From TrEMBL:
<dbReference type="GO" id="GO:0009266">
    <property type="term" value="P:response to temperature stimulus"/>
</dbReference>
<comment type="similarity">
    <text>Belongs to the DEAD box helicase family.</text>
</comment>
<keyword id="KW-0067">ATP-binding</keyword>
<feature type="domain" description="Helicase ATP-binding">
    <location>
        <begin position="33"/>
        <end position="206"/>
    </location>
</feature>
<feature type="domain" description="DEAD-box RNA helicase Q">
    <location>
        <begin position="2"/>
        <end position="30"/>
    </location>
</feature>
<keyword id="KW-0378">Hydrolase</keyword>
<keyword id="KW-0347">Helicase</keyword>
<feature type="short sequence motif" description="Q motif">
    <location>
        <begin position="2"/>
        <end position="30"/>
    </location>
</feature>
<dbReference type="InterPro" id="IPR050079">
    <property type="entry name" value="DEAD_box_RNA_helicase"/>
</dbReference>
<dbReference type="InterPro" id="IPR014001">
    <property type="entry name" value="Helicase_ATP-bd"/>
</dbReference>
<protein>
    <recommendedName>
        <fullName>DEAD-box ATP-dependent RNA helicase RhpA</fullName>
        <ecNumber>3.6.4.13</ecNumber>
    </recommendedName>
</protein>
<keyword id="KW-0547">Nucleotide-binding</keyword>
<dbReference type="GO" id="GO:0042255">
    <property type="term" value="P:ribosome assembly"/>
</dbReference>
<dbReference type="GO" id="GO:0003724">
    <property type="term" value="F:RNA helicase activity"/>
</dbReference>
<dbReference type="InterPro" id="IPR044742">
    <property type="entry name" value="DEAD/DEAH_RhlB"/>
</dbReference>
<dbReference type="GO" id="GO:0016787">
    <property type="term" value="F:hydrolase activity"/>
</dbReference>
<dbReference type="GO" id="GO:0005829">
    <property type="term" value="C:cytosol"/>
</dbReference>
Amino acid sequence: MSSFADLGLDPKVLSAIAAAGYEKPTPIQAGAIPPALAGRDVLGIAQTGTGKTAGFVLPMITLLGRGRARARMPRSLVLAPTRELAAQVAENFDIYARNTRLTKALLIGGVSFKEQDALIDKGVDVLIATPGRLLDHFERGKLLLTGVQIMVVDEADRMLDMGFIPDIERIFQLTPFTRQTLFFSATMAPEIERITNTFLSAPEKIEVARAATTGENITQGVVLYTASRKDRQAKEKRALLRSLIDREGASCTNAIIFCNRKTEVDIVAKSLCKHGYNAAPIHGDLDQSQRMRTLDSFREGKLQFLCASDVAARGLDVPSVSHVFNYDVPSHAEDYVHRIGRTGRAGRKGKALMICVPHDQKWLADIEKLIGNEIPRLESPLTGAPQSEKGPKSVRTDEARMPPRKREEKRDSAPRTDPPQEKRSRAPRREAPVVGMGDHVPAFLLRSFRTAAGETAE
Ligand code: ADP
Ligand code: MG
């Protein structure tokens, strides 16, 4: 099935998506919409950027087309893990429901509630909320969930990461068991599996293969980089990031720069600004209005570089990002897929570039194992020569073959034995650098490096 018109959607919905410029449904949409319209439960498994939102909002609008909202009893409920994601669903709803008279309210923390309260009092068709905020409202008696006919759980794996599963279970129990449930997740962790087994009834399962979503339209590359001195790493790494950005020239219209830690997100954003780049940070410690402002200006093209942590960025829909820079190698391989999924969306071309210091090479190996591909090694724009002597093949196979504990030991020893940078670029070695000192490293040295490594690891 390759056209929206074949899916059974309301003509009003069809004209709204035509106006939005969508030509044909994405695989998750083609898979989820028909069973959803037939009233079945749906379990959709697909990465970010695959069009899940329309996958549940379009059938929802069609199904709610008949019938009217009742005071304090929303007819449908969409749960999203973060305020930004909930706000994004609300924006999408406005686009897809523009030709209907359906109403919505948005219940998220950090913004004023008077208006939303009034809407709910009057009666809304769709309530979009974060779990905590919803329960808050419910407990204050402002809301009845017994009228919910359709319940959507979006980004369930993110809910799990954020500890929302008990809230989700509670909300499931507050809604009628005859409700229809549409449940979406990028992965199926055991805990998610358990929830779906408990609360979904004979769901239609739609799984979109990972290969299709990591996207052939994303060009990837990694610079293996070793600092000239350990204490200069942070500074040099920031200079390397700038030259990577500069090397992309005008093709880099906007980019997300990912760091593993919130403090790093702040430092990198500040440093970029200092050097004349148009950059701002986004992470969980910033207040809601600031996050929204930053995100809006990035969406509107006023902000060119968004420095982000994984938590802040997961699932966010930022259209047409030309580049993703991984300032740090993510320590969870899954996050790499999420991060680079921010570019090359909906068929556009994108580029994902990463910096990898020796300490992070173990994570690089994990990522390559997960994606089943080698990420091409790039020359460092700083030296004009590849910065590591490690042949890409040997990194991967050596590390991948070793049992986990062995690999751990190898990681710890890597920074100690790296030769100074200048030497390395003049006479690149073919072997992995972890041979060298071996057991002869003095105990005090081992200790200090352990601490350094520990600090780097999130
Ligand atoms: P997900 O929730 O899976 O991360 P989104 O629903 O946020 O994905 O959609 C990602 C982007 O793709 C959005 O910008 C959306 O407008 C766009 N999009 C969704 N469906 C289509 C489609 N059928 N054709 C073109 N673009 C689409
Ligand atoms: Mg989404």
